[in-house]
């Protein structure tokens, strides 16, 4: 029954990639968890769990997209399907993100503030810009740089750990 | 394409793309599986950043609540008591339902999945500091005081109430208790050796990492308080685990408002260990805020005690070694 624990990061990231509003994303993820629980007796235990959970996630995402069909800035079904397949292939990669906490801890000053405004307080770049006296474009670029730095930091730590073991 | 794929991906996550840029990104994703995987890697990071930062913010809130406001520290108790009543009622109802349809299976599956998630989050957590409080002690019948093999009267166990527990992955812990005389009694393990720093006498250490767990509640039935992950794993066997409804924060506008949930594990007949274990956790992050052990055997006594997360922070490389907890002039003895 460790299945859900293993599948959760992949499913969660898949949902986040389609449903960008954090609150809506949380709702959809919860719907997926409930649907997974309710249909768990139909899961064949000799089959991999992640694709099964992703199947449920796809269905719930389709329902979400149907509800949000007026929003033009959402991916269509073909893109969603392509992404679902891609996410299933990235399950292993999620484990190296264990170094993220350390890398986030190294953020300082404005980078840290922008990151918290974006991810904890759920502000978009335009709203963050007002708080930190920058332009929205600069905030968006900063967020991109921060994510790049975090990825590089994770890769460095992964390599260091691999080298020392 | 005016913007690079990396810029488009980042802009997409922050919702700053124009219609044209959004279409560019869609076309790029459809163009190849490798592109979609590059996007997926970025999305994993994006999603995990939020999870980590929310957890960190929650920890900070928990620490503030525990250290700044005495009134707030009382709140979890009332939550526990209310939840306990709910737990008892719902367990009876759930037990009845289990007998005649499949709902019980789903509830059990849901609880089991959630328990696994909590274990996983706990295993991945940084160093944690818990405050221990003893709510009640069921006193045994009068009996002879235990004695050491040489006939000396065994010293009383340091009280658990008010103790601080520091834990790290790999079975590392430090348990600080204060004796009735106000002196610090510290036991611990760095995962390689266990040790005890008593207020007087020599510092003792042993390569048996459980050597100094014997006066810690729970050690007799593989649920020592100092190894929380093991304790949570133990709930999978010999316990009926049930999830209570999610509790929304009273003040949803509050900065530290989080939805919490209670997982209740009730000991099955014939099993060993506490009668009931209650785990309150943050629904979003899976971070355990409080553990409550009801009717936990402790020698001849039965305790009801709770562990409340006080803080999560890195404690340094030396913290779990005995040298960090006594002056260098203390005599150190090895014990088999």
Q: What does it look like?
A:
- The complex is a heterodimer of chains A (165) and B (336).
- With 165 residues, chain A is mostly helical.
- Chain A has eight helices and no strands.
- Chain A has helices at 3-18, 22-38, 49-67, 77-88, 100-105, 109-119, 125-132, 136-164.
- By secondary structure, chain B is of the alpha+beta class.
- Chain B has helices at 5-13, 19-31, 33-68, 70-100, 103-124, 228-234; strands at residues 128-138, 164-168, 172-178, 184-189, 194-197, 203-206, 239-243, 260-267, 276-282, 288-298, 301-312, 332-334.
- In chain B, strands 7-8-9-10-11-1-2-3-4-5-6-12 form a twelve-stranded mixed beta sheet, with helices on both faces.
- In chain B, strand 5 (194-197) and strand 6 form a beta hairpin.
- In chain B, helix 1 (5-13) packs across helix 3 (33-68) and helix 2 (19-31) crosses helix 3 (33-68).
- Chain B starts with a helix and ends with a strand.
- Mean pLDDT of chain B is 76; it is low at 65-104 and 141-145.
- Chains A and B meet through helix 1, helix 2, helix 4, helix 5 and helix 6 of A and helix 1, helix 2, helix 3 and helix 5 of B.
- Strand tally of chain B is 12
Annotation, overall tally of beta strands of chain A: 0
Mean pLDDT of chain B: 76
Q: Give the largest interface.
A: A-B, 58 and 51 residues
Name the poorly predicted regions of chain B: 65-104, 141-145
SSE order of chain A = HHHHHHHH
Structural class of the helices, strands and pairings of chain A? mainly alpha
Biggest sheet statistics of chain A: none
Question: How does the helix and strand content of chain B classify structurally?
Answer: alpha+beta
Work out the radius of gyration of chain A.
18 Å
Strand order of the largest sheet of chain B: 7-8-9-10-11-1-2-3-4-5-6-12
The largest β sheet of chain B comes out as: 12 strands, mixed
């Amino acid at each position: 029954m460790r299945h859900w624990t293993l599948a959760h990061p992949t499913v969660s990231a898949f949902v986040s990639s389609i449903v960008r509003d954090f609150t809506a994303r949380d709702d959809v993820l919860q719907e997926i968890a409930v649907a997974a629980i309710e249909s768990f007796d139909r899961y064949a235990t000799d089959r991999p769990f992640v694709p099964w959970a992703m199947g449920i996630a796809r269905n719930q995402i389709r329902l979400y997209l149907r509800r949000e069909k007026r929003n033009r800035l959402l991916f269509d079904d073909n893109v969603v399907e392509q992404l679902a397949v891609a996410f299933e292939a990235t399950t292993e990669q999620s484990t190296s993100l264990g170094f993220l906490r350390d890398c986030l801890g190294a953020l300082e000053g404005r980078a840290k503030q922008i990151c918290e405004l974006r991810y904890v307080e759920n502000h978009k770049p335009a709203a963050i810009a007002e708080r930190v006296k920058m332009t929205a474009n600069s905030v968006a670029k900063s967020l991109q740089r921060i994510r790049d730095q975090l990825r590089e930091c994770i890769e460095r730590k992964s390599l260091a750990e691999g080298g020392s073991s | 394409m005016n913007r690079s794929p990396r810029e488009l991906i980042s802009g997409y996550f922050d919702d700053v793309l124009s219609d044209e840029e959004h279409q560019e990104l869609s076309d790029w994703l459809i163009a190849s599986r490798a592109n979609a995987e590059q996007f997926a890697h970025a999305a994993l990071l994006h999603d995990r950043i939020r999870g980590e930062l929310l957890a960190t913010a929650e920890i900070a809130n928990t620490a503030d609540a525990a250290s700044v406001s005495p009134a707030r520290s009382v709140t979890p108790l009332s939550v526990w008591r209310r939840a306990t009543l709910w737990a008892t009622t719902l367990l009876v109802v759930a037990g009845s339902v289990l007998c005649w349809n499949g709902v019980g299976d789903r509830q059990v599956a849901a609880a089991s999945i959630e328990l696994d998630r909590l274990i996983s989050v706990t295993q991945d957590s940084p160093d944690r500091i818990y405050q221990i409080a003893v709510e009640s002690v069921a006193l045994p019948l009068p009996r002879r005081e235990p004695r050491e093999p040489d006939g000396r009267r065994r010293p009383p166990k340091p009280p658990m109430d008010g103790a601080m527990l520091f834990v790290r992955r790999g079975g590392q812990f430090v348990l600080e208790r204060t004796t009735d005389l106000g002196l610090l009694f510290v036991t611990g393990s760095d995962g390689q050796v266990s040790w005890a720093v008593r207020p007087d006498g020599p510092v003792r250490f042993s390569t048996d990492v459980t050597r100094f767990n014997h006066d810690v509640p729970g050690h007799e039935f593989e649920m020592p308080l100092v190894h929380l992950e093991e304790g949570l794993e133990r709930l999978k066997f010999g316990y009926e685990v049930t999830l209570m409804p999610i509790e929304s924060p009273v003040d949803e506008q509050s900065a530290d408002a989080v939805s919490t949930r209670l997982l209740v594990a009730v000991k099955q007949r014939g099993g060993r260990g506490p009668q009931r274990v209650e785990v309150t956790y943050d629904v979003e992050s899976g971070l355990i805020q409080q553990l409550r052990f009801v009717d936990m055997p402790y020698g001849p006594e039965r305790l009801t005690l709770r562990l409340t997360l006080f803080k999560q922070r890195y404690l340094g490389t030396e913290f779990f070694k005995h040298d960090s907890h006594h002056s260098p002039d203390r005599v150190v003895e090895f014990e088999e």
